[in-house]
Amino acid sequence: MSAIVAKRVDSGTADTTEIRDLAAAAGYTISGEVTQSRRADPALQFGEGKAEELAARVDETDAKTVVFDNRLGPYQMYNLGQLLPDGTEVIDRFTLILEIFGQRAQTRKAQLQVELAELRYELPRAEAKSSLAKRDEHPGFMGLGEYDESRERDIKAQISRITDELEQIERTEEHRRERRRDSGFDLVALAGYTNAGKSTLLRQLAADLEIDENEDLHPDLESTAESQDRLFTTLGTTTRRAAIQPRDVLVTDTVGFISDLPHWLVESFKSTLDSVYRADLVLLVVDVSEPVDEIHEKVVTCHDTLYERNEAPIVTVLNKIDRVDDEELTEKREALSGLAPGPVSVSARTGTNVEELLERIDDELPDWLEERLVLPMTDDTMSLVSWIHDNANVNDVTYGDEDVHVSFEARPAVVSRARSRAGELERTSVESA
Ligand SMILES: Nc1nc2c(ncn2[C@@H]2O[C@H](COP(=O)(O)OP(=O)(O)OP(=O)(O)O)[C@@H](O)[C@H]2O)c(=O)[nH]1
Ligand SMILES: [Mg+2]
């Protein structure tokens, strides 16, 4: 699939690196680019002369697709279609991202999210189409497709059906997160711009995955977290277990962020991002080998995406330090200090400083509490003792004739759960006495 990349900027020179990477990720080979620096033309996005140049380039190169980095309105899309050689497909940044997501969506949830995003993209266009058709001001506009008011109603009905199903999935996942917290896990999430190295870091942090033990309890535990030098390699979520003594930590890797995403697209992926928003700690992974301006922009994008709903503390991880020397790293740390105070620098590829990051994770997570419980001997006592063994770090168990003394360290949630279960034992032992 051959495509020409097009980009307009208000001023300066247009950087096409990211849109080329996105097009490549969708499977296109790029046979050329056309860029322009001027304000947007309402009819064509480009100025007319530039749009004609684009048409000529398509003609020369037999590209079948034009990929615009700018958002195209339905009217611009239609006019460009008229101007370009017959059969040329015009897509913009957002439809391109949707195309990538559509290709990679494997789970039911990911497929629903893509479908929802497509419908949300189409809705305002269908509305525009029907209102334009009603006013009958743009006769040429009808060429976009059959005018059909019921399409609008259809889209709305589908959106509400998919939203319901996704909410159901969210509830199940929320439930799973709570169960994990209750059973003593700390939840750490990896967030960051696409291609920053999140999946590679996941494998470093959580190398020893005990998947067999957890298969039933944790259906999203996977043995692989694929890494590739390609945008949006990861779409869903992968969770692995890391032992940061005495803690049991679940680390979740998920979809990367990207700039200029419309609200409806982020919204459609809300439930995937919930694994980030609802974590106990977020590691914001940054590719430190890029130019500092670019890093800055990407971190701002990540913060914008996170700050809307995130509640957890954030630790910035400057990744890929194997690609910069010490001096450069120091300069970049300084330059980013306002945005990313107290970062940890690592190389997820070589493993440099990963130990330090694990220590930092331990420091940032809520402290474990020490507790000593005296349990009366009843039929259920041993089951509570073994629950404590499973969910806490047990220091000592002493069995007397009528009671059991247990001292342990655990997350606050586990301590309070153990206390309340101990209280129940006390009640049943008094009642049966
Ligand atoms: N040199 C170097 N390359 C790295 C490092 N960490 C990751 N990479 C490379 O960067 C590319 C992206 O890594 P991924 O782990 O797939 O990144 P990601 O953030 O999961 O990306 P998406 O899932 O696509 O959003 C891959 O080619 C990795 O091998 C590192 O510390 N040093
Ligand atoms: Mg990934």
From TrEMBL:
Gene3D superfamilies: 6.10.250.2860, GTPase HflX, N-terminal domain, P-loop containing nucleotide triphosphate hydrolases. Mg(2+) binds at residues 199, 234. One of its GO terms (molecular function) is metal ion binding. Keywords: Coiled coil, Cytoplasm, GTP-binding, Magnesium, Metal-binding, Nucleotide-binding. CDD domains: HflX. Its cofactor is Mg(2+). Pfam families: GTP-bdg_M, GTP-bdg_N, HflX_C, MMR_HSR1. GTPase that associates with the 50S ribosomal subunit and may have a role during protein synthesis or ribosome biogenesis. Monomer. Associates with the 50S ribosomal subunit. This is GTPase HflX. It comes from Natrarchaeobius halalkaliphilus.
